[in-house]
Design goal:
alpha+beta, about 220 residues, Ribosomal Protein L25, Chain P, RNA Polymerase Alpha Subunit, Chain A, domain 2
Length: about 220
């Protein structure tokens, strides 16, 4: 797994007012926690954290927190478990970092990376990707950065399911085996599916309208 370092500082001043001041200074209030680990309140640099979130799928990236507490510096391995953002102002409100322990299995979702051009596309088909991530559980030391799948052998009508994916030893796939990752469909079939979805949507709107009229 790829690991990046993020500087952090211990935080003792809590409350909405203190958090607001930190955000005005370009910092983000955060908390570090984990299994049998007492939560620790921190602050991290907003631009540095935004850069990490933008560049990587956060759960598939290890973040080494370099935590400063006065003259003391400690390092903790973590993942960005969650964050709250203002999408309009493009700013962060808060971030949660979950501790990674090398002796405990970690459950995360890995991004799926497809390579190769399906033979079915050459024959006039069209690829449809239905799943872009795969949930797995494994010790941190064996977790890959992504699930890489070569789909060059897929023909029209072929389906690649979760159960067809084999990862390394010690990695358990948690998603249902019958879940479809990618398929190659005839273009006519795709049009039929889209038309069916439109019909279902229209029927739903008509039923909703009828129910509203009956209530009146």
């Amino acid at each position: 797994m790829k690991t990046v370092t993020l500087n952090a500082r211990m935080r003792n001043d809590l409350g909405k007012g203190a958090s607001r001041r930190l955000r005005m200074e370009g910092m983000v209030p955060a908390v570090f926690y984990g299994y049998q680990t007492e939560p620790v309140t921190l602050t991290v640099n907003a631009p540095d954290l935004i850069k990490i979130i933008k560049q990587e799928k956060t759960e598939s990236l290890f973040v080494k927190l370099a935590i400063s507490d006065g003259d003391t510096l400690s390092e903790k391995l973590s993942i960005v478990k969650d964050y709250q953002a203002d999408t309009v102002k493009k700013s962060l409100f808060h971030a949660d970092f979950y501790e990674i322990r090398m002796d405990r299995e970690l459950t995360i979702e890995l991004p799926i990376i497809l390579s190769g051009q399906p033979v079915g596309i050459v024959l006039g088909g069209e690829m449809v990707q239905l799943r872009r991530g795969l949930k797995i559980s494994a010790l941190p030391s064996v977790i890959p950065e992504a699930v890489e799948l070569n789909i060059s052998g897929l023909n029209i009508g072929d389906i690649l399911k979760v159960g067809d994916v084999t990862l390394g030893e010690g990695i358990a796939v948690l998603d249902p085996a019958d879940g479809v990752i990618v398929t190659v469909m005839a273009k006519r079939k795709i049009v039929e599916v889209e038309a069916k979805e439109e019909i279902v949507a229209e029927e739903g709107e008509e039923e909703a309208a009828a129910e509203g009229a009956s209530e009146e």
